[in-house]
Design goal:
Strand content: under 5%
Order of helices and strands: HHHHHHHHHHHHHH
Subcellular location: Cell membrane
Number of strands: 0
Number of helices: 14
Helix content: over 70%
CATH architecture of one domain: Orthogonal Bundle
Radius of gyration: 29 Å
Organism: Propionibacterium cyclohexanicum
InterPro entries: MetI-like, MetI-like_sf
Distance between the termini: 53 Å
Pfam family, one: BPD_transp_1
CATH class of one domain: Mainly Alpha
Largest sheet: none
CATH topology of one domain: MetI-like fold
Protein name: sn-glycerol 3-phosphate transport system permease protein
Shape: globular
């Protein structure tokens, strides 16, 4: 009798646990699934569609005929895909020259910006000098000033120095940016100071600590700044448009203005879409190379 009683008391909690687990699954399961869909997947899908659909529509439009782009009935896919728009765009604009100009301006400008951002952020965090906080506050104030405000003063200065229709005239005014310095400074503040102090005790100088310790540890953050800087340099339009009036010095975004868009002429729209595709593709290629570093930077510290 005691054995039956003990067996029943042993099995009773297990049944209660099973029933309670099933009840919890019936209550929590659908709710958590709905929460994931409504709070995670649905906004992500909508945001992706907002970004991707216009780009996809532009790519498809570059392969369409003019009558398919501007029509009362929407042509979702090109009925007779052709490279005619790209051929016409290449006849109207010297894309190889524009591409070379954009690559030169982007590589030199983004490279100098990245070096200045890394060294300035390192100095603001690990180097002791007077008025460091004042300088940082001044950099934050510079971030709040729209670039259009400095357009006229920069043009007067660069034109007075003979920088019109020159590569250095396009690059030089854009070097004074504080975005990368601010972002990297916030990242450097989270680095372990004990390691750097130990390296300082061993006799390592600032340059050695920067190149051998800070930069390798901060590769994801530096790659993020590099991508943002490259995209900004590549897509820069207003300043190169103002400082250049010669086709041989124009960048790709400015060169698209040479594709004459006559209002009411539908034949120009596929050509403009083809030119825009040629501008966007290099940026996407750069993103594919840097995206793993960016993902590593975003997930850094998420798992403890």
């Amino acid at each position: 009798m005691s054995l039956l009683t003990s067996a029943s008391t042993k099995h009773r909690p297990a049944r209660h646990r099973r029933h309670s687990d099933q009840a919890d699954e019936s209550v929590v399961g659908p709710t958590s699934t709905a929460g994931k869909v409504l709070g995670g997947y649905l906004p992500m899908i909508l945001a992706t569609l907002v970004v991707v659909l216009p780009l996809l529509w532009m790519v498809l439009g570059s392969f369409k005929q003019a009558g398919e782009v501007v029509s009362r009935t929407i042509a979702w896919l090109p009925h007779h895909p052709s490279w005619e728009a790209y051929v016409r765009a290449s006849h109207q604009v010297n894309f190889p020259r524009l591409f070379l100009n954009s690559v030169l301006v982007t590589v030199v400008g983004a490279g100098i910006k990245l070096v200045l951002a890394v060294t300035s952020a390192y100095a603001l965090v690990f180097v002791r000098f007077p008025l460091k906080r004042v300088i940082f506050v001044a950099m934050l104030a510079a971030l709040m000033v729209p670039p259009q405000v400095s357009l006229l003063p920069n043009y007067v200065l660069i034109a007075g120095m003979g920088g019109v229709n020159t590569y250095w005239g396009i690059i030089l005014p854009g070097l004074g940016t504080a975005f990368g310095t601010f972002l990297l400074r916030q990242h450097f503040l989270a680095l372990p100071r004990e390691v750097l102090e130990a390296a300082e005790v061993d006799g390592a100088g600032h340059m050695s600590r920067l190149l051998r310790m800070v930069v390798p540890i901060s590769t994801p953050a530096i790659a993020t700044v590099a991508l943002v800087t490259i995209v900004d340099e590549w897509n820069s339009y207003i300043w190169p448009l103002v400082i250049t009036n010669d086709d041989s010095r124009m960048t790709l975004p400015v060169g698209l203005t040479l594709l004459k868009n006559i209002e009411g002429d539908p034949s120009s729209y596929p050509v403009l879409m083809a030119g825009a595709v040629l501008v966007i593709v290099p940026v996407l290629v750069v993103f594919l190379f840097l995206q793993r570093y960016i993902v590593a930077g975003l997930t850094q510290g998420a798992v403890k």
